Every structure is written in structure tokens, then in C-alpha cells.
Amino acid sequence: MDKKQSLHSHIKNELLTRIKRGQYQKGEKIPTELELCKDFDVSRTTVRAALNQLTLEGYLERVQGKGTFVADKKIHQTLSQTVKRYIDQMEVQGKTAEIILIDLSVVPATSSIQETLGIPLNDPVQKIERIRKANGIPTQYEISYIPWKVAPGVTKKQAETSLYRALKYDFQVSIAKTTEHMEMALSDESISYYLDSEMGLPCFYIETVAEDREGNKIEYSQSYFRGDKTNFVIERFYPEEEGDDY
């Protein structure tokens, strides 16, 4: 064990290794706290701290009166350039995707939306609130803003399939570039309600601005991803040119 590593962190990492290597399979009940105490020769408090961290991070699930079980694998989503729809990304991972529309309304552009989308103050904007699920479990809560003049009359069906696909084929608006800013956030009462999670759950928060080839702002979105159910894959491609240092 690393001298700088706490005892419960060591146990947490060892259990995580067992999960990732398949020693503990998805849905399998792991040994009890008492059994783990004997296995690692540590106190129950230390084992409990390790299990609490693995539960918070989404690798374990506790069922009242039954024990602690290995959770389903987190869904992978790609941050680098991709044309794959959410449904397609989930299908590759053997999961059933679902997009649920919570609210579709037209609101006046506030000063922050005006500045972000480059439109006049109080211009009509379509506000689209959605939840994305994988195998019935909410993983993402998203609020999108699209100027009315860009795509007037977005429908429920379009919002619950692929918004970008609808923009391209139904409104002849193609997304050429997105700029995304990511940071960590803790879910408040509203976000935890939509994500069906405990308040204070760590989430990935991503703000996205989409543009067409002329640089016109097409969409602004705010998305919250459950940290215990989601991770991200980042791919980078580098030109093979001599003399470049990376």
C-alpha cells in the first residue's frame, strides 16, 4: 500500500479492481462488511468508508435489508467529434435509450440568453427540457434554448428523437461546430428530482453552444449528467508532422 494512501482508500481501490476485473460481477452481492473486515484485517468503520465511496461513485448499490451489490456499468458518452445519436451510443453498449420531453415552451430571451445566442432581448426562444435514460434510469437532465427564427415550431416528436437531426432535415439547419464547457456541480432539489437521485450528488455540468458554418448561434444547452452513472471518453487526433512536440 502507498504510504500516502489512507487505509480506506486502499480497500476502495482493491474492491474497485475486483469489480473491473470481473471478480465481482454486475448484480452480484459482495461480501458483508464483517467478511471484508476479516479479509483486509481492518475495522468496520474503515470498510464502511470504502463502501460508501464506491456507492457514491456508482460502482455499488445498497439494497435495504438485502446487502450491497455491484452496480451496472456506467454509460460511456463521447466528448470528441461524433455524429452518433444518443440512442446509437447506448445501443452499442447494449442499453436501451429513451429521451423524455418534460417541457416545450416559448419564452422571451433573457439578457444571458441574448448574450449567448446573439439575439435581441425578449426575442422568442424555444425552451426544451428533456431527460435522457439508459435502461430506464435517468442519466442526463438537459435544458436547450433554440431561437424561434432558427427552427420555428419544434415538436414533441422531434425533441424526443434527435434534435440535431430534426434541425438538419426538417429545418435545413446544420450544426458545424459546438463549444462545450464542463465543470463539476452538486445536484440541487430540482436536478435531483429529474435525475431521480439524492440531493448533493456530484454531477458533470456541461454548457454547449452550437453554431452553423456561418458562425450563427443555433442552440444553447445546459446539461447535468449523473456522476454515478456516466463517464466520458475523449479522443484526440494528432497530425503526423515531423518536428511537432506535444
UniProtKB/TrEMBL annotation:
Residues 5-73 form the HTH gntR-type domain. The keyword Transcription regulation applies. Coiled coil: none annotated. InterPro entries: Bact_HTH_transcr_reg, Chorismate_lyase_/UTRA_dom_sf, Tscrpt_reg_HTH_GntR, UTRA, WH-like_DNA-bd_sf, WH_DNA-bd_sf. It holds the Pfam family UTRA. Transmembrane segments: none annotated. GO terms for biological process: negative regulation of DNA-templated transcription. PANTHER family: MANNOSYL-D-GLYCERATE TRANSPORT/METABOLISM SYSTEM REPRESSOR MNGR-RELATED, MANNOSYL-D-GLYCERATE TRANSPORT_METABOLISM SYSTEM REPRESSOR MNGR-RELATED. This is GntR family transcriptional regulator. It comes from Gracilibacillus dipsosauri.
